[in-house]
């Protein structure tokens, strides 16, 4: 081989190596810090909205919706079922969210229905959905996992009334 050919091969491998390094750094940054958010809404204790106003209807997460089974409830929630989701520990302890028929996404992303900003919560961490009148919990391939009564959630599971849901450093309960 000529020296020119070897030089071109060396430069090609060097470029390939740098492309690989940049892709790893980008993936790590995305895992650690989440996706970039264009505008953060200030959270002020003095001007905090009511829990009902702070809980918009959850929009389906496009990436998770592609992998998750799609099902819509055909029956309303049971009369003796949960009516609210209460944060029992974490940054927003004591906050209550009324439960409707829409699915609830939990994560650091600004498009989540419940936004939790801590180091242990993924951008799109978990979702709760109403299925055949029962609330189900699904982990959205989060880094640190989603837990129901201390057990890691790997497939969608039914959430019993009063069960402890742990997402990052925050815990929730479904209550009447």
UniProtKB/TrEMBL annotation:
PROSITE patterns per record: FHA_DOMAIN (PS50006)
Superkingdom of the source species: Bacteria
Phosphoprotein listed as a keyword: yes
Protein name: Antibiotic biosynthesis regulator FhaB
SUPFAM superfamilies membership: SMAD/FHA domain
Organism of origin: Agromyces allii
Xref: InterPro entries: Cell_Proc_Reg/RNA_Proc, FHA_dom, SMAD_FHA_dom_sf, YscD_cytoplasmic_dom
Keywords: Phosphoprotein
Boundaries of every FHA domain copy: 104-153
Gene from which this protein is expressed: fhaB
């Amino acid at each position: 081989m000529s020296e020119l050919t070897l030089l071109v091969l060396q430069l090609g491998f060097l470029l390939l190596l740098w492309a690989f390094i940049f892709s790893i750094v980008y993936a790590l940054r995305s895992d650690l810090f989440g996706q970039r958010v264009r505008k953060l809404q200030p959270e002020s204790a003095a001007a905090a909205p009511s829990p009902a106003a702070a809980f918009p209807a959850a929009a389906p997460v496009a990436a998770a919706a592609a992998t998750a089974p799609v099902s819509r409830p055909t029956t309303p929630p049971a009369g003796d079922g949960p009516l609210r989701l209460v944060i029992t520990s974490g940054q927003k302890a004591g906050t209550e969210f009324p439960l409707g028929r829409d699915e609830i996404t939990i994560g650091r992303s600004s498009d989540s229905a419940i936004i939790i900003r801590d180091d242990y919560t993924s951008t799109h961490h978990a979702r709760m959905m109403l299925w055949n009148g029962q609330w189900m919990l699904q982990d959205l391939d989060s880094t640190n996992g989603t837990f129901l009564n201390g057990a890691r959630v790997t497939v969608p599971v039914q959430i019993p009334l009063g069960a402890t849901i742990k997402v990052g450093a925050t815990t929730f309960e479904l209550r009447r």
